[in-house]
Predict the structure.
Amino acid sequence: MLFLMTDGDDLDLQPPAKRKRRSFSSDAMESVNKQFWFEDGDIVLGIEDKHVKIHQSKLMGSLVFSTMLALPQPELMESFDGCPFVKLPHDTFHDWIPVLEWMYDRSSFELRSTSLDITARALRIATKYEILEVRQWCKQQLLSRWPLKVVEMNTTAMANAAEAICLARELDIPEILPAAFYALAVQRWSNGGDGGRSHLILSPDDLRRLIVGREMLHERLTALLFNWDPHINAEFFSLCRVCDQACMLSLPEQLMPALHSPYGNWLLHDLDRMSKNGFEGLYACERCVPTLRYAVNQFLAQLQDAIPSYFML
C-alpha cells in the first residue's frame, strides 16, 4: 500500500519496501463506491472509509500522481482487488467526488450549473494534487461570479462573498478578492443581506480591510454627489448653469440606495447603468451630455482601478 502525502505532510513519493501481499476482507470490499468502481480499473484509492477502482490514465493529469506512478514499484506490495492500493489519509471523499466526475464525464460536468461548494471541493483536490485543468476550470467558475473587472459583477456575487474570500486565501486565487470584497461591501448587513455570518467567517485582517474599503467607497460617493474631487481639488465635471443645478438635484436620486434595497453603495453598478441609459433623469442638455458621459466614464475607470487599494489588497 502506498500512502500519498502532500502539502502539510512531508511529500514522499518513494514506494515502501517489499512486503508480503495482504488480502482485504469482505468488509473492505463492501466499502467500494459503485459509481467509481470499474472492473477494468488498474488502481484503487482509499479515501476515508471509501474505495474507488479507477484507471491510472485518469490520474495522469495530476503532476503528483503522474510522478508517483512513474516511480518503480516493488514486486510485492499490498493490493486491493488485484490492483495497487493508494491510501489518501488526509482527504475527504466528499471533496473527491466532483474531481472524479470531471475525470470520467468532463463534458457533462462542465455543462452543469455549479455551486460554490462543488467548486471549492474540486479546487482543494486540484490544488493539492496539481491537477492543472481542474484548477483552471475552478478558477474560471469563481471569476464568473467575482470577475476581474469589478464593474461586470452582478447579483450572483453577493451570496457567499465572505466564503469566497476565505477560499481565495486558502487556495491561492487572489484574482477574485477585489470583486468578493466589493460584493460584501455593497450589501447591507443590517438586514442580513450578507447572510449574517460574514463577520464570523472573515479573518480579523480581512474584516478590517472590508471596513476600510466601505469607508473609501462612501467617501467617493460623497465626493461625486458634491461634484468635488478632494484628491485634485477640482470638479469632476463642469456643465452649463441650468444643467449643473438640475444635475446636482437629480444625481442623489440616481446614486443613493433606496431604503428597502438589500444593497447599499453600489456605485460601479449605478454609474454604469446611468451611462448606458444615456443619463436619463439627470436633465442634461445635448451639449452637456458628452461632458457628463466623459466624466462618468473617467470616474468609473478610476474607481475600478482603485478597488484593490481601497481594500488594501
User: Anything to note?
Assistant: Residues 10-22 have pLDDT under 50 and may be disordered. The radius of gyration is 27 Å. DSSP finds 13 helices and six strands in the chain.
